[in-house]
Amino acid sequence: MSRMIMGLFIGYGHGPRGWDDPKLRDNYDWRRPELYQDLALVCERGCLDLMIFADLLGIPEAFRGSQDTSIKFGLEGICHDPIPLLAMIAAKADKIGLASTLSTTFYPPFLVARLMSSLDHLTRGRIGWNVVTTSNQSSAKNFGMEHLPQHDDRYDLAEEYMDLCYKLWSSWDPDAMTSPPDDIVFADPAKVRRINYESENFKCQGPLTSTPSPQGRPLIVQAGTSDRGREFAARHAELILCSKESLDEMKSIVDDIKNRVVRNGRKESDCRILFTFNPMVMGATEEEFRRKEKLFEEVGESLVEAGLAKVSRSLGIDVSKFDLDKPIPHIDESLLQSGRSLIPRYYSFGRNPSLREVAAREATKETFQVRGTHAAVAERLMDVHDKVGCDGFLLRANYLTKPLSGYVADFVDNVIPILQREGRIQNEYGAGTLRERLGTRIPGWTGG
After folding, report:
1. How would you classify the pairing of strands 197-198 and 203-204?
2. Strands, DSSP E only, in 282-403?
């Protein structure tokens, strides 16, 4: 029985979190690093494998053609760059893996390759890159583009992008620097080379200006679950993030992705599949759990507008014109620039929820339901792990989550010990880099 990978997904990156919670407001300012540094230490207390930070490069405006709802509620898109934050977290928390989102559509490949290599040095081999192609039209406008490239075209661009990054990370041989250090010679020029890369979209001389990092290149994380996204992930990803509503759909995507991984010349273990979940509704007793459940449902109902904005952003379509109490009308997938996983996530295997229900769930980001006492939550995770064949889970923290006054510390202190006693998750950090701990790889990599 393989162990579960367990991590934390910060769904709003370095953005508003707990700004409306007096318990946090009195002690933390979300714009400062202390909230995230202390949260990382909570995660390390439970031996969580990694923290993954989302990012968005524009404030969404699909809902009602306006950015007002996102600004009103402090939603995704209002966030600072998470990259500097990772370095500050790593200075205080020295064990947990750290991954950040960076877009292949907007960031120059050389910049990303150098940035990831530098962070990998600073963290002693604990860095991951959540590769995204960006689906938010507002982001395109912030980079001087009127429209995003088409969905599949963005993935074609990303294929070239990854190829260039791999070559940059391989432009130094692992033993290029003299060892032990020489008084005169720093590195062997014969082991450092230009890559002279040229493709339809990119041109780069190289070599990379940073020396080979502990991992050689960052752990590659990916969350695309469209058909094109899955194929891209099967070639490149070492961790795949999924948000699904039912066990049937979870099992289906696990089987499909692992088959694709093997077809691309890799072993199933080279790529780990993690499902996000939001265990905000749990308690030490049944009574405490029921009280929290009632509050949680009220929160979801009160934030339908915020949920509608999130649905609109995901689909790239203004859903305010649809009837709240009816299912989302049929949308031709070929017309969607993004959100190709949202519709099947809610409308598959016989499910047909109203738009209001979908919006409430998007507001709270509960995905598949994990509720109950601490023991029941642990049992639920073990059951899902066994039935769907996934490799682990990511607690999801979004703007409704109060990390240190709420469920993350509660989960770490009360659910994690149960899973550890059952032998399902690690109770100490092993030696080595993040990749070595997770046991993943990409075929053909020769850079370290």
Report:
1. antiparallel
2. 282-283, 372-373, 392-397
210 close to 121: Cβ distance less than 8 angstroms:
yes
Q: Where are the alpha helices (DSSP H) in 81-136?
A: 82-92, 109-122
Burial profile 164-191: b = 16 or more Cβ within 10 angstroms, e = fewer: bbbbbbbbbbeebbeeeeeeeeeeeeee
List the structure tokens of 260. 């694709």
What is the DSSP-derived secondary structure letter of residue 81? -
Q: Tell whether the model's pLDDT for residue 361 goes beyond 80.
A: no
Angle formed by the axes of helices 247-263 and 227-236, to 10°? Answer: 50
3-state DSSP assignment of residue 377: helix
The pLDDT mean for the chain works out to 86
Q: CB of 323 within 8 A of CB of 359?
A: no
pLDDT digits (tens, 9 = 90+) for 226-235: 899 999 999 9
CA distance 75 to 306: 8
The better pLDDT of the pair 342, 20 is held by 342
Are the C-beta atoms of 224 and 337 separated by less than 8 Å?
Answer: no
Rounded Cα distance, 345 and 76, in Å: 20
Q: What is the mean pLDDT of residues 260-272?
A: 94
Share of the chain above pLDDT 70, in %: 89
**Dihedral, 330, 332, 335, 341 alpha carbons, nearest 10:** 80
The Cα–Cα gap between 35 and 29 comes to 7
